[in-house]
Amino acid sequence: MKKTFDQKKDVVLMRGIGVSSGIVIGKAHLIASAKSDVLPGDAVPVCHLDTSGVDGEIHRFREALKLSREQLRKIKRKLAKEERVKEHIGIVDAHLMILNDQMLISDTISIIKKQRINAEWALKAVMKGIKELFDGIDDQYFKERSSDVEHIVDRILVNLAGGKHEKIEDVEEPSIIVAHDLSPTDTAQMGEGNVLAFLTDIGGRTSHTAIMARSLELPAVVGLESVTRSVATGDTVIVDGMTGAVIINPSDSVIDVYEKRRQRYKKYGRALRHYRSLPSETTDGHRVKLLGNMELISEISSLIDHGSEGVGLYRSEFLFLNRKTLPTEDEHVAAYRHVAMKMSPHPVVVRTLDVGGDKLLAQVDGVEEANPALGLRAIRFSLKHTDIFKTQLRGILRASSYGKIKVLFPMISGIEELIRAKDMLEEAKQELTSEGLDYDAAIEVGTMIEIPSAALTADLLAKEVDFFSIGTNDLLQYTLAIDRVNEHVAYLYEPFHLAVLRIIKSVADIAIKEGIGISVCGEMAGEPEHALIFIGMGIDNLSMNAFSLLRVKKLVRSVSFAEAQEISKVVLGFSTARQVEHYVSSRLSAFYKEEYWS
Length: 598
Ligand code: PEP
Ligand code: MG
What we know:
By secondary structure, the protein is an alpha/beta fold. The protein is 46% helix and 13% strand. Magnesium ion is lined by residues 410, 450, 471, 473-474.
């Protein structure tokens, strides 16, 4: 179909970090999220007013309240029409009640008057007081209301700033979402909606938002820095999720070029299906197991459809996100049992909760951390909140009697932490035994190797586990000291850095020597040029998103194990990432020739 465009508008070409391939030509929809420039978290601007400005400020505040009420009523009407979501009307009612709360309104007005200060600042101050009050009450109901207050205040703040407060699920037309930032939770909601692709100002290649986009096969470009200032809702936009190119208001001829490219991409995807049922083995018969990474239960069918030989990484934290209460033990059992049964007889590696960093848990009050990536994340969180951890471990164990489930601990930094996690697992086993509940007593236990301290003590960790799973996303973040969600340091994301290759080689050597399982489940596993090196190192389990499965299988079937071993050996002799890249590209030239962009 021929796309039209608005000739009067300037054509803008931007380049960001292409994090999920695919080409989309469509209309932009700008979302002002709670994380946008319009609303920079706690840092609302402070403006001192003249006496004459006070009334105007109060009026501005009242108008924002009015608009917020109208928006909520509109959402309520929409919900009432849909049977599936009717039950959520109660949440909107609760928000409307908060919006009419006299304390919120009159206290804000009183601060504006007394301190002659802007409405945003006054409102934030009132919210802080209400939150402290609610948080001080030891009751789940009030804790939930506390986050409701925050949502409402966010809405009012966006309206004060003249921004549109729209949620992704409100988008009515098939659109390309443009936002300052999107959380992994936002992205998880895009699977079934009207979202064709998304663009963000910030973000990095291995952020969980990017990973989620790849899982949903949703083209995405992040780290564009100013896309929210360059695009307006309704603009025609081309997104190339592979190269990171974004063209705003393209000419007809450019649209034609990309339309052809889009067709090529689709054809390439269809051609890859040929590999679906072929064995994953090299030309000299070496088997390499290709497994899938998953975040949402709904991804399981796509993994099966792409020929996955099991789930190498189930990021269980997504069970905790997008909801107000913590999952119960039975909910854990139901989720893992479902996946294990669907995947049977293949294994499913359930990784215990990995929150913190760029995935925040709404149900538990977090402390504001200056360095979230180095903070209370993953196993550290679980070992602090042992009730949450135990519930999950019991759930995983109970589900293990229905299929081949393995348990994996994230962000292990050393032996003591690993032993504490294993002790908790043992405790959970004993509880289940005494309650007469079934589980796989021989359940395999693994540790992620994603922190340099774990890699450097891999020989010690190997004695405690059945397998290692190398998380290259975090291993790169912590080895190269680059924040994986920060676009400003994304240029340093260097998978071919010799430090990375050496560290992975040493972990693989230890696992092989100790006779335990070894896999890579970070994003590198799904890139043919990296997978090739891992195979040569003797890593025979690679876990990745659905789309990469067929591409990597094509690679596996195009080389011999001997060749891969030789290539791995040669690259470890280089000194720069660039040399490695050139060498590997030259060895893969025949493979690349058949890629859709060549
Ligand atoms: C990793 O760090 O490589 C990994 C697989 O875990 P996550 O991306 O969920 O942190
Ligand atoms: Mg990780």
